[in-house]
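Notes from the 1:1 (GR / supervisor)

We went over the backlog. Supervisor wanted to see one worked example end to end before approving the batch request, so GR pasted a single chain during the call. The sequence is below; no edits were made to it. Supervisor asked that the structure be written out right there so they could see what the output format looks like.
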Amino acid sequence: MTVVATPPAPKLELPPLKLGPITVDTPVILAPMAGITNSAFRRLCREYGGGLYVAEMVTSRALVERTPESLRIISHDDDEKVRSVQLYGVDPVTVGQAVRMLVEEDRADHIDLNFGCPVPKVTRRGGGSALPWKIDLFTSIVQTAVKEASKGNVPLTIKMRRGIDEDHLTYLDAGRIARDSGVAAVALHGRTAAQFYSGQADWSAIARLREALPDIPVLGNGDIWSAEDAVRMVRETGVDGVVVGRGCQGRPWLFGDLMAAFEGSDQRFRPDLRQVAESVYRHAELMVETFGDEGKALREIRKHIAWYFKGYVVGSELRTKLALVTSLEVLRGTLDQLDLDSPYPGADAEGPRGRAGSPKKPALPKDWLLNRTLDDAQTRDISFAELDVSGG
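Structure output shown during the call:
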């Protein structure tokens, strides 16, 4: 991997992130992303830099029912030092049972609760970024989860958004409730559910949350496309660490850049096309190991192709072929047709990636916004609102 020097930057005076008994020397967290942050991708990221690498979001109900897919999602490589799992749920009882299972069966060292997902199939059931609006439900879930996790000394954190929309912001109330309930840290994505991933993340809201919760770690998320963005977020908001999602799609080496930047190093990864092609092939090999099914693994790698080759000179015919590969042999042969000596394209390979979507009215349960507590009908519906496996 080509490593180049950038203008020197002073070292950030940012201490290691403490989450209960866990110390994260480089305070960078890989955001859980459905269909992306499986063990194969987490391994690629870990090979470049330090941090905390969270598995894909899994629903509490599926975990309690021990569905094969939910158990795959929470599986970790033997050398993953911190086994991090993110749970989604809307029923305090089910969430509590899932946390208890993870703790009693020693399946996780860190548990995160998802209150940030903006996907309609999640919010229309009252989950994800819709849930903190209901203070009683949010409080019950967090308190139950913290109680169960504490029995095994497993730190529990939450990840959330600013709120449902600009008229229904929840992050300050939710942050204080979570802090008072005993969470180890709070992460805030600086967008509302209505924004989806469009527009710009509001870093000033992250700064306000940091100021409102001086006694626990606060982590910032949103629009971190480079190591320099992460450094700027820390300096502008005062957060204790950053959470990186779409910025690392097709760029597992971003975690090497982040670690270097936080240490004040001017080293950055700038891969040429040959190095990107090798990363793609290695990613596919690891996916085969993860799924034990070459066909499924190659179908999964297709979504990563456009991210890996963003900005690089790859003809449309080859891009189409890469998006239709069916085996490692076909992938290898197609990658070898690239102009592998093409250099790093610079800014064209950087910046925003992944689907931003567009602002939209969030899908919510009936009468969800009428008040901040559940009514009788909503209370009855909650226990039936869990999704099958993953909310993303």
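Supervisor's comment: The radius of gyration is 21 Å.
Batch request approved.
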